[in-house]
Write a structure and sequence with these properties.
mainly alpha; Alpha-lytic protease prodomain-like; Alpha-Beta Plaits; 9 helices; about 10% strand; disordered N terminus
Length: about 300
């Protein structure tokens, strides 16, 4: 059995995203903004005797908790990145937080749907002016938060033209879940403003619960998409595009054949791979796989071809 070369025997297992520390700072700013808006809505609800504002304030509290968990995941991933007990690093802490956050988002969608259905049958009086003002302020806060967490395609590129920022945002389920949380809040703010204006000027009281149901449906779809993405990482599902690239590079000259392949994510933009081959040298296979930038931890095992039985 032939293992990979000696030059790679000593290495760390820190597979965090390229913008991990930057994302941590952005997440903490969003937590501060969300907590401030949450407190403002609850205080305003008590002052104006508005159940709508109080409800939205406690609804924002669930997002504040989820965003705090996301920020904590970044801090923990950095804190324990070098510990040997995490055999492939701490890159999946973000996916665990992202899955939990997506689950909370699904529960929020369910709560909004139930409350909206109840209001169809039992309409509640609304303080339109105060509620609209707070909803607009909430929308501004959510748009600022979305701008902080959204992808910045002009941040930096490597020499090969690979956009690390876009890749991090696309594959970092912790960042994506936080981004979707603030987008969900922005969506509910827009729908709330439309419903409040319709109720204020057109007396369309049915518009408030109707918009609530629309918002709940959209948030539920986002939640399901995030849970699928995070669970695929947590369950070590293989990336078919990276797998196809590995097989094409190793087997294109027909002098090597892959007999066993394991491929899984260990960080937002990094994969680990174990490639077992017959018919070629392990170090040569490692050279062939250098263009696969997604692989950050590679083990190549060269096996001897099985002996052919003698002719009868």
């Amino acid at each position: 059995m032939q293992q990979s070369g000696a030059d790679d025997l000593v290495h760390d297992h820190v597979f965090l995203g390229h913008d991990h520390d930057r994302n941590t700072r952005r997440m903490l700013w969003v937590v501060v903004l969300t907590l401030g808006m949450m407190v403002g809505e609850i205080v305003a609800g008590l002052l104006f005797n508005s159940m709508a504002l109080l409800a939205d304030g406690f609804h924002m509290a669930t997002h504040a908790v989820a965003l705090t968990v996301a920020a904590g995941a970044y801090l923990l991933a950095r804190r324990y990145a070098g510990e040997r007990r995490f055999t492939f690093g701490t890159g999946k802490i973000g996916d665990l937080a992202g899955f939990a956050s997506a689950l909370v988002l699904g529960l929020v969608a369910l709560g909004i749907a139930v409350e909206s259905l109840l209001r169809f049958f039992h309409p509640q009086p609304v303080a339109f002016d105060q509620a609209t003002a707070i909803a607009v302020l909430g929308l501004v806060v959510n748009l600022v938060s979305a701008a902080l967490l959204g992808p910045d395609h002009h941040h930096h590129h490597d020499h090969g033209g690979h956009d690390h920022e876009a890749a991090d945002h696309r594959h970092d389920n912790n960042l994506r879940s936080a981004y979707v949380h603030v987008l969900a809040d922005a969506l509910t703010s827009v729908l709330a403003i439309a419903a409040l204006l319709g109720g204020r000027f057109l007396s369309w009281t049915w518009l408030d619960p109707a918009m609530g149901l629309v918002g709940a449906a959209v948030i539920a779809v986002w939640s399901w998409s995030l849970m699928r993405a995070a669970s695929s990482v947590l369950l070590d599902m293989i990336d078919p595009h990276v797998e196809a690239e590995i097989r094409e590079l190793v087997e294109k000259d027909a002098d090597a054949r892959i007999v066993d392949l394991h491929l899984w994510r260990v960080g937002p933009t990094g994969h680990a791979a174990i490639v077992s081959i017959v018919g070629d040298d392990a170090d040569d296979v490692r050279r062939r796989l250098r263009p696969v930038h997604e692989i950050v931890h590679l083990t190549v095992e060269a096996r001897a071809a099985a002996a052919q039985p003698p002719a009868a």
